[in-house]
Design goal:
Radius of gyration: 24 Å
Bound molecules: 3-acetylpyridine adenine dinucleotide
Number of helices: 15
Number of strands: 20
CATH class of the largest domain: Alpha Beta
Strand content: 15-25%
CATH superfamily of the largest domain: FAD/NAD(P)-binding domain
CATH topology of the largest domain: FAD/NAD(P)-binding domain
Helix content: 25-40%
Length: about 550
Amino acid sequence: MIRDACLIEDPTTPQEFDVVIIGAGAAGLYALHRMRGLGLSARVFEKGDGVGGTWFWNRYPGARCDVESWDYCYTFSEELEQEWEWTERFPTQPELERYFNHVADRFDLRRDIEFDTRVDQARFDDDRNRWIIRTSSDVTVSARFVVSAAGCLSEVNTPRFEGAETFEGQQIHTARWPKGGINVTGMRVGVIGTGSTGVQAIPQLAKQAEHLFVFQRTPQFAIPARNRPIDDDALEELKHNYRERWELKKASPVGMGRRPPEVSSALEVDEATRTRILEDSWALGGPGFARTFDDVMTNADSNQLTSEFVQDKIREKVEDSAVAESLLAIDHPLGARRLIVEIDYFETYNRPNVTLVDVAAAPIEEITPRGLRTTEDSYDLDLIVYATGFDGMTGALLAMDIQGVGGLPLRAKWSDGAGTYLGLVASGFPNLFMITGPGSPAVFSNVIFSIEQHVDWITDCLAHMLENNLDRIDSDPEAEAEWTRQVHEIAAQTIVGKTDSWWTGANIEGKPRGVTFYLGGTHTYREICEEIAANGYKGFVFQPAGNSATV
Ligand code: N01
C-alpha cells in the first residue's frame, strides 16, 4: 500500500484512498479488481444505482451489443469465461447487465463502490501530489491517483428544440430509458435520430406503437446482424476456444477474434469473385462486414464497390421506392460513420404504422404542446424519443470540473482539441489516468478488450511506481504533442472524419472538430504501449517520493 494511504473516519478530514475510480462500468469494475490486486485502497464513484455503465443506462427497446458476445467479454479470468453462458450471438442489454452484475458479485467488488454518486470536481494538490475529489453527495475525498472510467459514450446529447418544455406528452433520451420500460401500446411515437441506437429501437417500438414517426436527418449504411441463439454445442466450442480467440484478438486491428479477410482489396479480384466474397460477408452479417476487404476504409474505389453492393441489398428490402430512396440518400462512404448493425430495420418501413420523415429536407422547427412541427408539417405525438447520441470521447471527462497543476481546467487545456499521451494521460494532470481516453483506439475497437489492455497497462505502471518509490507521473508535453500529431496523421489517411458525425465532434455545438481515435490498430497500439513501458516509460516524467525533482 502507498505510504500515507489510510481511511480516516473523522468527517472534517477528507477520506484518503490510494485510488479513486470514476464509474462502475466495464472499465471501472476491472480497474477496481486490478487496483485491489496491487494492495491499493480504492473507491469507485458511480452515478447510477447499479453496475454496467453503458449497459446500465441504455435500456431502450432493442438495445443490444453489436460485437459478438464471445468477443465482448472479459478475458482476464478463465474461470469467469468458463462459468458464464452466453445465449445469443449479439447479447441484449439485460444479458449484459446480468453479466456485469455477476462480475461485480463474483469478484466482491460492490463493497468499494459508492452508487448514486457523481464526481463533480477533481483538483490536483501540487504540494501533496494528491487529487481532491468532490462528489454530488457533497463529500470530499483525496486520492494519490484518479482513474477515469467515465466512458466515452456516456454524456448524453439532447438537442435543444424550441418549445421542448411545452410538450404535454412524454419525452426521453434513449440512454435514460426507465428500468420498468415504457408501454407504448396505443401511442403515437416520434423517434429523432437514426444512428446505431435509433436503428435498434425503431423496429421494436414499431411493433407496439399505434403509429411511429421516424425523423431522419442523415441516412446511414446498416448491415444485417444475423443474430442467432447459441446452442449447447456452440457454447461448448466457444468455451474450448477462448484462448485461441484471445490470440486472434490480440493480433487483430480491432480486437476481435476474426480471421483476416480472404483478399486484401476489392480491386484485386474479378467481379464474380468480388460478388461472391461480398455475398458471403453479407450472409455472415455483423460489424465484420466493414472488413470484407482490408482496404474498405482506405481505398475510395474499393469502398465504392462495397457501398454500392450494400445499397442494392437495402433497396431490395423496402417496398415503397420513394421511402427506399430516402433511406438510401447516403452522403458518405461506408465506414465514414459508425457502421450500423440492424435487425429488421429496413423491413420496418414496410409496416403501415411507420412513417419516415425526412428532416434534412424539412427540418424540425419546434416542439409544440401536441407534438412536433417541421418546416412542412405537424405531427401529433404522445412520446418523443431522442435517439440523438452522445458527446463522445471527451464529454464525460469535461462534464467534471477537473483541474490540474496550477489549477488549469481540463476544459481550458482541451479548448482547441483533446491532446493526450497514448490516450492514457494528459500533461499537466499528473496521476490521472484515462481509460479509453481521446487519442486511444477506444470504441474504434472491441472496447472491452481495449479496456482490459488499458487497465493492465495502468496497473503495471502503478506497480512500477510502487517498486521504485515514485510519487507522481505526468507526460512530457513533447511526447504528448507528438502522439496527438500521429493520431491526426493516421486518421487523415482513412475515410474516418471525411464526413460529419459524433466521431469528429460535429454533433456537439462548439466542440472542436477532429478525430480523436488512434486508428493505427489496437494490435499496433498495444505494441507501442508495451514498448514505451519496456523503455523505462519513455515520454513520461516521474517524481520520486518526498522529492520535487523529476526523473
Ligand atoms: O448516436 P449517433 P447513437 N435533429 O450520434 C440525429 C454506440 N452504440 O446513440 O446524423 C435531427 O450515432 C443524428 O442525425 P445526424 C456506437 O458507437 C453502439 O445512435 O447528426 N436529428 C443521428 O441520426 C454509436 O456510433 C451500439 O444528421 C438529430 C442520431 O441523432 C454511438 O454509440 C448501439 C439531431 C444520433 O446518432 C452513438 O450512437 C448504440 C437534430 N437536432 C450505440 N441531433 C451497439 O453496440 C442528432 N440527430 C449496438
